[in-house]
Design goal:
single chain, alpha+beta, Dna Ligase, domain 1, Ubiquitin-like (UB roll), six-stranded mixed β-sheet, 24% helix
C-alpha cells in the first residue's frame, strides 16, 4: 500500500467521517481548485445502538463500524488514511457571541495570521463568558467551530479583512462549544482505528457549508439537518450564520412510532419508513410474531401522523425561538428530511407558504462538489459538508502548540489551555493529576488498622519557560514543558512493621519445643516478619514474652517449688522474660487451668432476651488547622472517613472558573495533592499568586 494521502496533481486529499446515530459514512476527496472531487464514498449501518442522539456511547462498537468503512476505502483507493475530519452533533450545544478589537499598523495589509489572532481573541472572550455562566464547571467545554457575523475596519463593514489596510479591526462572531465528553468520545473512537483528528466541526456548520452558499446567506434562511437522533438547525442572515440551535426529536421518533403501530423491531421499522419515503403504494413486512402483513402507505402515514406532527412542531418552535420569527426559506437535509409530510407540517408550524420549505442539497452542492449524482443529495449533505468545511478552512492558521518537543494540533483557538494540550498529546488524567497510593486496611486482633499509601509526586508545567498550571490559556506556537505526576506507592506493610518488637523464637517445655515471642496467623496460615499485609487481611497474634505468658497459653499452673529454667529455680515467672532456647522444666509439678463457665444473664421467665448492645463506633473529631494564617476548624465527616485536602476548598473564597493568577495549594510548606489527608496542626495555604 502506498504512503498515506499521496498528493495527486496539485490537490491535497481529504478524508471525512460522519458518525451518525444510524450509520457511519466516509468521504474521501481531492481538492481541485474550487471543487472537491469525491474519490470514494462508503457507509456502514450500526448493528446495535452504539450512538444515541448523535453522542457516541459504545466506543468499541462505533470504532468497529468506522474501522470497517476506513479499511474498505483504503483497499479500493490503494493508500492508508492517517488524518480524519469529523463533526459533532449539537445535542448539548452552547453558543456565545463575542466582539473583539485590535490595533493595526496601517502601513501593512491584514494577513491571515492577524485575522486568525483576532478571531482567536474573540473566541477566548466567548469561552470565558461560557465558563462564567457554567456555575464553576471548569474545563467542561471545547470549542468546535465558530461563525463570523461581521468584520469592521475603521468603522466600515467588510466581508473579509484580508489585504486591507487600516488602524482598527473588529470582529463579531458566534463561538460554538460542546461538553468535553462529546469531543473526547470522538477522539477515543478515532484513536482505536489508527486515525488522528485533523479538526472537529459542528454538524450544522458542515451541512450549511454544503447546502447554502455564501451569497444566499444574505437572506434570512434556515437549514435543518434531520438526523436519527437530533435535528440540528443553523440560521443565516445578513451574509453570515447568526444562530445555531437544535430540536431534541428527530427520525428515531418516527421509527419508534412505526414500531409501536405495526409491532415490528427497529431494523424492520427503518426499512418500512424508507419504503414510505420512496412512495411505495403498499408495504409488506414481517412483525415480531413472525406473521407477514401488508399495509397501504396512505394508511401507515395516517397512523404515524401524530409523531411526524410532533417532530415538525419541535423543529418549527426551535427555528422561531432562534430567529425571532419565521425565516424567508428553510432547507431540509439529512435522512429524516424525506419523511412524508414533514416539510409541509414545518411550513404550517412556521406560518409560511409550503413552497418556502424544501429538501436541500442538489442545486448548490454541485457548485462545490464533483461526484456521482446520488451523493449530491440531502442524505449526504453532512458528510460531504464535513469535507467541504475541511477544504475551505485549509488557508487558515492552524492552532498548534509544542508539547515536550512534539507538535500538537488543538481543537480550536480561543478555548485552548494546558489541560487540553496534554489530553490531545495522549497523556492521561492520572499522569496529570497523580494519586496517592492505595491504603491497606486490615484487622489486627479485632481492631481496624490503616496504613496509608505513599503521596504522589506532583506534575510540573511550564509554558514558554514560565511556571504554569492546567488552566493556563494557550496561543499558537506556545511551547509546553510537562513533567508527569508519579503516583504514590500502594501501601504494602510487612508484619514486622506493624508489630513493634517482632521476634518469634522457640523454647523447650519439658523437652518439647514451644513457640514464644510474637506469632501471627492470617486465614489460618502462619506469618513471618517478612509477610506482606494486604488489604482486608484479618490477623490474629499470640504474644508470649514472659514465662507467665507461656504458662497461660499452654493452659497450665506450675508448681513453683519444682519449676526450673535452664536448671535454675524460678520463683517469679511473671517477671522472667523468655529468651530463645530456654529450657523450662516443670518436673511433673503442674495442673491444668479449668475452662471458665460461660456467663449467663439472669432473665425473668417469659421475658424476651434483649440483644447485647453494640459497642460504640469510634467517631473522628474535628480537625484544627491554620488556613492562610488563620485558625480554622474542619468538621468531621458523617461517614467517619478522614478529612482530605479538597475538603479545605469549601473554606476559602477561590473560584477556579475565574482564574486570577496561578493557583497555589500547599500543606506544611510543600505542594499538596487534592486527595491527601489533612491532620490537626497542618499549615494550609490556598490562594491566587498574581
Amino acid at each position: 500500500m502506498a504512503d498515506a494521502f499521496p498528493v495527486r496533481g496539485d490537490g491535497r486529499l481529504i478524508f471525512a467521517l460522519d458518525i451518525g446515530t444510524r450509520s457511519v459514512i466516509g468521504v474521501a476527496g481531492r481538492v481541485e481548485g474550487p471543487l472537491l472531487k469525491v474519490l470514494k464514498v462508503d457507509a456502514q449501518e450500526h448493528s446495535e445502538r452504539a450512538v444515541v442522539d448523535g453522542q457516541i456511547e459504545n466506543i468499541e462498537q462505533t470504532a468497529r463500524i468506522a474501522g470497517q468503512v476506513k479499511e474498505r476505502m483504503e483497499q479500493e483507493l490503494g493508500f492508508p488514511f492517517k488524518d480524519v475530519y469529523v463533526a459533532a452533533a449539537g445535542r448539548v450545544l452552547k453558543t456565545r457571541r463575542a466582539v473583539c478589537e485590535i490595533e493595526l499598523d496601517d502601513k501593512q495589509p491584514v494577513d491571515q495570521r492577524q485575522l486568525s489572532r483576532l478571531e482567536s481573541r474573540a473566541l477566548q472572550q466567548a469561552y470565558e463568558e461560557l465558563l462564567g455562566d457554567s456555575d464553576g464547571d471548569l474545563l467542561s467545554y471545547y470549542c468546535v467551530g465558530h461563525s463570523v457575523i461581521r468584520y469592521t475596519l475603521d468603522g466600515y463593514t467588510f466581508s473579509t479583512l484580508l489585504g486591507h489596510r487600516g488602524r482598527k479591526a473588529t470582529v463579531e462572531l458566534i463561538g460554538t462549544f460542546l461538553p468535553g465528553e462529546v469531543v473526547e468520545s470522538l477522539y477515543a473512537t478515532m484513536s482505536k482505528i489508527g486515525l488522528s483528528i485533523a479538526s472537529v466541526t459542528l454538524e450544522p456548520i458542515a451541512a450549511i457549508n454544503a447546502v447554502i452558499p455564501q451569497e444566499l446567506r444574505l437572506l434570512n434562511v434556515a437549514l435543518v439537518d434531520v438526523g436519527a437522533g437530533t435535528s440540528d438547525i443553523a440560521i443565516a442572515n445578513g451574509g453570515s450564520v447568526c444562530a445555531y440551535t437544535m430540536a431534541t426529536v428527530a427520525g428515531d421518533e418516527i421509527t419508534e412510532s412505526v414500531m409501536r403501530t405495526l409491532l415490528v423491531d427497529f431494523q424492520v421499522a427503518e426499512e418500512i419508513k424508507r419504503q414510505a419515503s420512496e412512495g411505495r403504494q403498499t408495504i409488506t413486512y414481517c412483525d415480531i410474531l413472525g406473521f407477514e402483513n401488508s399495509i397501504p402507505c396512505d394508511e401507515l402515514l395516517e397512523k404515524i401522523h401524530p409523531a411526524v406532527e410532533e417532530l415538525a412542531g419541535e423543529i418549527s418552535r426551535s427555528i422561531l425561538d432562534a430567529n425571532g420569527g419565521p425565516p424567508m426559506a428553510v432547507f431540509m437535509v439529512g435522512g429524516g428530511s424525506r419523511t412524508p409530510g414533514l416539510c409541509r407540517l414545518v411550513a404550517q408550524g412556521l406560518g409560511v407558504d409550503e413552497k418556502k420549505v424544501a429538501i436541500g442539497g442538489n442545486n448548490y452542492m454541485k457548485r462545490m462538489v464533483d461526484t456521482e449524482p446520488q451523493y449530491v443529495s440531502a442524505e449526504y449533505a453532512t458528510p460531504i459538508g464535513i469535507a467541504i468545511t475541511a477544504m475551505t478552512a485549509s488557508g487558515k492558521e492552524e492552532l498548534s502548540v509544542v508539547l515536550n518537543g512534539e507538535r500538537v494540533r488543538m481543537l480550536g483557538a480561543g478555548s485552548s489551555n494546558v489541560l487540553e494540550a496534554l489530553l490531545r498529546g495522549g497523556y492521561q488524567y492520572s499522569q496529570i493529576m497523580g494519586r496517592s497510593g492505595r491504603n491497606a486496611t486490615f484487622a489486627l486482633d479485632g481492631e481496624r488498622q490503616i496504613v496509608r499509601g505513599g503521596m504522589p509526586t506532583l506534575a510540573a508545567f511550564e509554558v514558554n519557560g514560565r511556571p504554569a498550571n492546567i488552566t493556563t490559556p494557550l496561543q499558537p506556537g506556545d511551547e509546553i514543558k510537562f513533567t508527569p505526576a508519579v503516583n504514590g506507592e500502594d501501601a504494602a506493610p510487612l508484619l514486622r512493621d506493624i508489630l513493634g518488637g517482632w521476634e518469634a523464637f522457640e523454647v523447650l517445655l519439658d523437652g518439647e519445643p514451644c513457640p514464644a515471642g510474637v506469632s501471627a496467623l492470617c486465614g489460618g496460615e502462619a506469618l513471618t516478619g517478612d509477610s506482606v499485609i494486604h488489604d482486608s487481611d484479618v490477623i490474629e497474634t499470640c504474644r508470649v514474652f514472659t514465662l507467665a505468658d507461656l504458662f497461660e497459653t499452654q493452659g497450665i499452673i506450675p508448681d513453683l517449688a519444682l519449676l526450673t529454667v535452664n536448671g535454675e529455680p524460678c520463683e517469679h515467672p511473671e517477671t522472667y522474660r523468655l529468651r530463645p532456647g530456654d529450657d523450662i522444666q516443670l518436673l511433673g509439678g503442674a495442673t491444668s487451668i479449668p475452662e471458665p463457665a460461660p456467663a449467663h444473664r439472669q432473665v425473668p421467665v417469659g421475658q424476651p432476651v434483649a440483644p447485647e448492645p453494640e459497642p460504640p463506633v469510634a467517631r473522628r473529631g474535628p480537625v484544627q488547622i491554620i488556613l492562610n494564617g488563620e485558625p480554622c476548624e474542619l468538621p468531621p465527616k458523617p461517614d467517619g472517613s478522614p478529612v482530605q485536602f479538597f475538603d479545605v476548598l469549601n473554606f476559602v473564597e477561590i473560584d477556579p472558573s475565574r482564574p486570577q493568577g496561578d493557583l497555589v495549594v500547599s500543606r506544611n510548606g510543600r505542594p499538596a495533592s487534592y486527595i491527601e489527608p489533612v491532620l490537626t496542626g497542618d499549615q494550609i495555604e490556598v490562594y491566587w499568586k498574581r
